[in-house]
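Quick log. Single chain, no ligands specified.
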Amino acid sequence: MNDLLVLNMIEQLTQVRNQTEFSSWVENQLLCGCSASSVLIGFGKMLSEYSMTAHYVSPGFPKSLIKTFDIHDPHLAVPMFDEWRHQRSPVMANLSEETSHDMLWQTMFKQKGYRQVAVAVNMDQRDGSTTYMCLTDLKCYEEDMPLEVFRKHFAIIAPILHSVLSQIEYQTNLEKKDNKIAKLTPRENEILRWIKEGKTNFEISCILGISFSTIKNHVQKILIKLGVNNRTQAIAKYS
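-> predicted structure:
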């Protein structure tokens, strides 16, 4: 994959605005451009707590491996994450090399017939948000000095990919919040606004001229509809 192709790939990536466009970019730009056999791209957090959402998974990617991403320890569950963490640059592994002991993820890839695995990561140290990309058999990097060329290209792509997925995640969470807020009745919205102002149930009942028990019932319905446990969480959803 030459530099011009990479620049075009990045240009197309910067125009991605939603999940549908992202999936199209992966299929038509990334997989085709790299001549990769499969890819998994996830976004989540790997500092203080670990969670990851797969934004794209190729049909050929080992399904049994995806399940290991549910293990709440990225150093055990995520292929080559430790290698990236030590080098802070894209990494690649040749599965055809003989080793005395294969790790679980290596065994799973070999069972699929893959010969090569490449990983690029971008982590925001401020909040731990992380974009993780794992590709198999990148045929375009099988020429001279494949690792050096791969590192150069994906060191550029990874942070841009992270920015795009961060925005998609933000929009998705915003839409979920808006959908929950939309389920509230006008009266519940009004009460929630007063809760945000720091008013107690008694104070709201006085302001609106409604009985304390009625306000209490409304607040309980608000918490249920927003899927939260307390007033503080409700305010956070509303903000």
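Residues 146-182 form the longest helix (37 residues).
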